[in-house]
Write a structure and sequence with these properties.
Layout: E1 68-73, E2 76-81
Antiparallel strand pairs: 1-2
């Protein structure tokens, strides 16, 4: 038995391309609008210096009292600055 080769298939007929359509006429460009006028910047305001807070008042320093001593010499009584009586006086 002889083997038969299948017959080659015929390709389908190629269709021709459709004719190209004509390009639509170009539209006219829209008219160009004029730009709005440029506004001038507002004038620059000068910086206002900040108000300073009222100064805090410190209480007046209390003067320290110098130590004093009361001394006597016979019938005389005197007060001296310091902690010791001068010579001749007793506490």
């Amino acid at each position: 038995m002889a083997s038969k080769k299948p017959a080659p298939k015929k390709s389908a007929p190629v269709k021709k391309a459709a004719p190209a359509k004509k390009a639509a006429p170009a539209k006219k460009a829209a008219p160009v609008k004029k730009a709005a006028p440029v506004k001038k910047a507002a004038p620059v305001k000068k910086a206002v210096p900040a108000k300073k807070a009222a100064p805090v008042k410190k209480p007046a320093p209390v003067a320290k009292k110098k130590p004093t001593v009361t001394c006597t010499k016979g019938a005389i009584t005197r007060v001296f600055d310091g902690t010791k009586c001068p010579s001749g006086f007793k506490k």
